[in-house]
Amino acid sequence: MTDPIADYLTRVRNAVMARHKVVEVPASNLKKEMTKILYDKGYILNYKVLDDGKQGLIKMALKYDPATKEAAIKKLMRVSTPGLRKYTGYRNVPRVLNGLGIAIISTSKGVMTDKEARNEKVGGEVLCYVY
């Protein structure tokens, strides 16, 4: 697989469009950190990391509005790809929908949101936008 992060985002995006309650993705340390951010920011209900003896799995419970049945995740967009990496300094960290969404950034201090990167005054690779 050439781009595991794009595969992760595509699996979640497809599960949201198909109105699935749970989605499973192969685990890696970067994907675990991204899932933790999605959970902390309220885009998913819960997640569990399962050990299957090999790579492991991340099982995520997707979040929907009980009244309108609308998903919490409206859009997941990959920014930096293996063919064209997108890096940013801390002064130019992108705002997603004027702060309503989040950008997930891989920095030297770990994976964090755009707001945390601005507060820590650290830049890095912009992985994806979520709103």
UniProtKB/TrEMBL annotation:
GO CC terms of this entry: cytoplasm; ribonucleoprotein complex; ribosome
Domain of life: Bacteria
Keywords: Ribonucleoprotein, Ribosomal protein, RNA-binding, rRNA-binding
Pfam families: Ribosomal_S8
Gene Ontology biological-process annotations: translation
SUPFAM superfamilies on file: Ribosomal protein S8
Coiled-coil regions listed in the entry: none
GO molecular function, one term: structural constituent of ribosome
The UniProt record lists the keyword RNA-binding: yes
Complex formation: Part of the 30S ribosomal subunit. Contacts proteins S5 and S12.
Similarity-based family: Belongs to the universal ribosomal protein uS8 family.
Its job: One of the primary rRNA binding proteins, it binds directly to 16S rRNA central domain where it helps coordinate assembly of the platform of the 30S subunit.
UniProt protein name: Small ribosomal subunit protein uS8
Native source organism of the sequence: Marinilabilia rubra
Gene: rpsH
